[in-house]
Design brief:
Blueprint lengths: L23 H18 L8 H11 L13 H6 L6 H6 L12 H14 L5 H6 L2 H10 L1 H8 L6 H8 L16 H7 L14 E5 L2 H5 L2 H13 L3 E5 L6 H5 L3 H20 L3 E4 L2 H14 L4 H9 E3 H11 L11 E6 L2 H4 L6 H6 L7 E4 L16 H7 L1 H16 L3 E6 L2 H14 L11 H8 L5
Parallel strand pairs: 1-2, 1-3, 3-4, 5-6, 5-7
Helix pairs in contact: 1-5, 10-12, 12-23, 14-16, 15-16, 21-22
């Protein structure tokens, strides 16, 4: 038996249609097998709150081993998992193909799927995952929606905390009245025919966040690609299903994957690359969908054609070269690498892209922000999420203070927009004087370096 695998990690397809997948006895046995390995290793103690909860359970048991831990305590371990995948990708020495065959995030997903099948996922939790419906409704009156969700609204936020479970202090995404797809259609991009990459074609998958909450991410990506000779189309066939995956609704994710892949594969047939704007969505298209639907040909082809937006820009730079015109920013950048970008196993592409900007120093933060999608905004999780993200906030505050002392501008950027919001709140908790209004997506800073108005 080897101590730890030196081979590249691999993942098994999710056998979610097999009755054994949700069989209570077999699931409990697998939980105990995996947890016992984790207890003996404890390498992941500082990644998130799942592992401390697990180790506390074991340490408090009569035998201080798994054999005397009550299975009812497993619920807390599962609830603390954000499916960030960092334990699998960066810490665990026992992931497949190691003989221990340990995949902690997908074990948590299996448990949640069993709960979903047993009808244990509440109505409110399900409604919060309906990002497309919620985005369309908010777009009718975005001013009202944003007023109601503002943290300084002492009327609505306490009510939302009581009824929906969203912590009154958690910063929530703002909504726009005109989605990204409509904005892009109304303002066509002019493709730079003199760029080295002229001739490339890419379809930008808008993602629910960029479509309904921050269209500037998509517009900046489109304009950067146009500047570099790429003909683009912006489309949105629906949410990738990450919110449903967080709640264990694998069947719903599978339905979305089939429908969206069937619609988007036509772009692949026409020679388009597929570019996803948010790391979580890129992860779903590239990795999670193929593990849920391993035999779906459309899903496979879409996965092979999909790139994260920073990954795609770096690919252009290496293969054809970038267009002229990149100029230094008015400050340096500290970029937070999103967990779901790291889980794509593609390297730090956001940092690599930003380092192409001349005379601009790029620092990197490689820790989880603690947000975890909607998880970190919930009343029971918000303070824990800030605690998990404290190392990120501390690094960001240090960078801001150093820049302030030198009289320079310091950007704090994040590939994940939700993580960016959460990091800002962490910065405010860490140092009330370290004010920062926005943590932009790296593609917006790259667009700015090209002289584009972002």
């Amino acid at each position: 038996m080897s101590e730890g695998s030196l081979e590249a990690p691999t993942r098994h397809a999710l056998d979610w249609n097999n009755p054994d997948f949700t069989d209570p006895a077999k699931l409990d046995a697998e939980m105990r097998r995996i947890f016992d390995i984790c207890h003996g290793c404890r390498r992941c103690f500082n990644l998130c709150d799942s592992f401390p909860r697990l180790f506390d359970l074991v340490d408090a048991a009569p035998s201080e081993e798994l054999d005397t831990v009550d299975s009812k305590g497993f619920q807390g371990v599962v609830d603390a998992c954000t499916l960030c995948d960092l334990c699998f990708m960066t810490k665990c020495p026992y992931v497949p193909p190691h003989e221990f065959d340990l995949d902690f995030p997908h074990l948590m997903l299996r448990y949640r799927f069993a709960e979903k099948q047993a009808g244990k996922v509440g109505l409110i939790e399900r409604q919060l995952t309906e990002t497309d419906r919620n985005g369309r409704l908010a777009a009718i009156a975005p001013g009202v929606a944003n007023w109601a969700s503002a943290t300084d609204n002492k009327l609505t936020r306490p009510l939302m905390e009581k009824t929906v479970g969203l912590h009154r202090d958690a910063d929530l995404p703002k909504f726009v009245g005109k989605p990204l797809v409509a904005q892009a259609a109304a303002n066509p991009a002019v493709v730079n025919a003199a760029a080295p990459a002229y001739g490339r074609k890419a379809v930008i998958y808008a993602t629910c966040f960029a479509n309904y909450n921050e269209p500037d991410i998509g517009m900046a990506a489109r304009d950067v690609l146009a500047k570099n000779g790429v003909q683009t189309e912006v489309t949105y066939a629906g949410c990738c299903g990450m919110p449903q995956l967080e709640q264990g609704d694998i069947a719903r994710v599978a339905d979305r994957a089939k429908a969206i892949a069937a619609e988007m594969v036509r772009w692949v047939d026409d020679g388009y690359d597929v570019v996803a704007l948010v790391p979580s969505c890129a992860l779903m298209l590239k990795f999670e969908w193929p593990l849920i639907l391993p035999d779906d040909a459309n899903v496979k082809r879409l996965a092979a054609a999909t790139r994260d937006v920073a990954e795609y820009v770096v690919e252009i730079a290496k293969r054809e070269g970038l267009a002229e015109g990149l100029a230094p920013l008015d400050g340096n950048v500290t970029v937070h690498l999103a967990c779901h970008a790291r889980a794509q196993n593609m390297g730090p592409k956001a940092a690599e892209m930003l380092r192409m900007i001349p005379e601009t120093r790029i620092a990197v933060i490689e820790r989880c922000s603690g947000h975890g999608g909607s998880w970190g905004a919930m009343k029971d999780n918000f303070e824990v999420a800030l605690k998990v993200g404290k190392p990120v906030a501390r690094q960001a505050v240090k960078a801001l203070k150093q820049a302030e002392e030198k009289g320079k501008t310091q950007y704090i950027a994040s590939e994940c927009p939700l993580a960016g919001q959460h990091i800002i709140q962490g910065i405010e908790r860490e140092d009330a004087t370290a004010k920062i209004a926005h943590a932009p997506h790296p593609i917006k800073l790259f667009a700015r370096a090209f002289g584009l108005p972002y």
